[in-house]
Structure formats: structure tokens, C-alpha cells
From TrEMBL:
Name listed for the protein in its UniProt record: Related to dis1-suppressing protein kinase dsk1
PROSITE patterns per the UniProt record, alphabetical: PROTEIN_KINASE_DOM (PS50011)
The entry's keywords: ATP-binding, Kinase, Nucleotide-binding, Serine/threonine-protein kinase, Transferase
Pfam annotation, one family: Pkinase
One of the record's GO molecular function terms: protein serine/threonine kinase activity
Source organism per UniProt: Fusarium oxysporum (Fusarium vascular wilt)
Gene3D superfamilies linked to this entry: Transferase(Phosphotransferase) domain 1
InterPro entries: Kinase-like_dom_sf, MAPK, Prot_kinase_dom
Residue stretches making up the Protein kinase domain: 1-251
Top-rank taxon: Eukaryota
Length: 269
């Protein structure tokens, strides 16, 4: 919903991933505590002086004298109840208004980067770049791991993983992919006995077997995969919009009703 709100306001977030989603602590746990009480309940962090690697004094007024380790206030995700799961989309430092600014470079993590930022790098990024990253984030939040492997260290490896999961690239992108013949035949078949993880296999292993909660039944599984497929389209003009995601079958029948029941309020008109 936060992504849809930003898009309606005319802004692309530009860096959607789970690290930029914050879990709001219940107000009764923190709002009425003094700073000293917070320290007593958790711990008071010790200051760590800032130093330069060359040993010279730090003179810049923009550099703090000390830094502090963050205070752990949370709890394991599997202990968070749905009524407590109030999320905030944070870090709008890379946000931009595509009607006023031309953005060609994607700043999000390599594994979450929309493919048009690689293959159509002369075309401005649009709202659909957020939808790609959002789809990957929803997948990771629902399952036991990321959609793309966490051990991908280069752009080519990410492209291979995208093709394995979602199928062939658009023809003009396939022709631009210079290292394609190292991993696939011209017909798109894997070379050298390389194991391929298509979408359904990832769903079965990451979202179904890896879930700590009840598995999705056949109807919900189909609706969820339909939504993910609509968000992870190679061609940005074919991606769902944020509003279409909100009104998709999976959101309408499963996600939103659960959230509305837990939070005791209507979320969509």
C-alpha cells in the first residue's frame, strides 16, 4: 500500500527491499518510556570514537565524534503477531518523480534490480521498476528465502537466475546479452548440466516447504503466483501497476482480509 501511495503521489521509491521496511513497535512498549528506562530495559550503548584510517584528527563538522551500536528492540519475525505487523516503507533517499527527473541508473541491490536497468539503460526508469523490486520483496517476505539466489555476485549470474525462473528474455535483450552462450544454447537450454530452478520449483521449496506457518492451498497458490508473474515481467510496460497489485485476486481474497481483520479497519475503498 505504501508503494501505491508513493506512486499516486508521482514518486518512484527506487530502492525497495526488505532492508528498507521497518516494523513499528507497539506504542505501549516504547512511547511512554523515558530514555533512561529504555536503557534499563535494554542496555545503554557505549560510544565508539570516530577515527581516520591515516591516524589524523577528524576536523569535519559533518562527522560525529562518536558512533553507537544499534539497540536491539525487536524480536524474531516468527514471534510477531499479525496485529503487530505494522510496516513502514523507509529510505526515500533515491526516490524521484519521473515526470520531472530522468533516472537511468537503478540504485537498488543487484539481485533486486529491474532488468530494464541492464538491457534498456538508455531509457528512463518508471514506476514499473518499483513493481519488480516489490514483487521480489513480497516473495521473500512470504517464504524462507529470496527469489533470486543470495550467492549471486555478478550481473551475468543475476540474469541467468532471472531467465531460469521466468523464461526467455525479450528477443532484443537476448541478442544484447553477450555472455548468453556461456550458460545457454541459442534455444535457451542450459549448458554443462547446469541445474535450472523454474518458478514453480522455487515456489514449492521456498514458499511451501520453507514456511513456518500453514502452507498455501491450491487456489491461493495459483492466485499468488499469478500476482508474482504479473509483477515480474521483463518488459516494464507489461508489469502490473501498484494499484493493480492491490486489487489482484490474492490481495483481495487473502492478504487484505487478514490484514483488515487484524488491524480492525478497512484498507481499501
Amino acid at each position: 500500500m505504501a508503494t501505491a501511495y508513493a506512486h499516486r503521489a508521482g514518486f518512484v521509491h527506487g530502492d525497495i527491499h526488505l532492508g528498507n521496511v521497518l516494523l513499528q513497535l507497539p506504542g505501549s512498549e516504547l512511547d511512554h518510556l523515558s530514555i533512561q528506562q529504555v536503557y534499563e530495559r535494554n542496555y545503554k550503548p557505549d560510544p565508539c570514537p570516530m577515527t581516520r584510517t591515516d591516524g589524523q584528527p577528524v576536523f569535519s563538522p559533518s562527522v560525529p565524534k562518536n558512533v553507537y551500536t544499534p539497540n536491539w528492540l525487536g524480536k524474531p519475525s516468527y514471534e510477531v503477531l499479525l496485529p503487530e505487523a505494522k510496516l513502514w516503507l523507509a529510505d526515500f533517499g533515491t526516490a524521484f518523480n519521473p515526470s520531472q527527473e530522468t533516472r537511468l541508473l537503478s540504485y537498488t541491490h543487484l539481485q533486486n534490480r529491474p532488468p530494464e536497468a541492464v538491457f534498456d539503460s538508455t531509457k528512463p526508469l518508471t514506476f514499473s521498476s518499483d513493481i519488480w523490486s516489490l514483487g521480489l520483496m513480497v516473495w521473500e517476505g512470504m517464504g524462507s528465502g529470496p527469489f533470486m539466489s543470495g550467492f549471486l555476485f555478478g550481473e551475468n549470474e543475476v540474469i541467468v537466475d532471472q531467465v531460469d525462473a521466468l523464461g526467455p528474455l525479450p528477443h532484443e535483450w537476448w541478442e544484447k546479452w553477450e555472455t548468453r552462450t556461456n550458460v545457454s544454447t541459442e534455444g535457451g537450454q542450459p549448458k554443462g548440466g547446469r541445474k535450472v530452478w523454474p518458478l514453480q520449483k522455487r515456489f514449492d521449496l521456498i514458499l511451501q516447504r520453507g514456511k513456518k506457518t500453514a502452507k498455501l492451498d491450491d487456489e491461493e497458490s495459483r492466485a499468488f503466483l499469478d500476482m508474482i508473474k504479473g509483477m515480474l515481467r521483463f518488459r516494464p510496460e507489461e508489469c502490473m501497476t501498484a494499484d493493480q497489485v492491490l486489487r489482484s485476486e490474492w490481495m483481495s481474497k487473502w492478504a487484505l482480509p487478514l490484514a483488515e481483520k487484524a488491524w480492525e479497519r478497512k484498507l481499501l475503498n
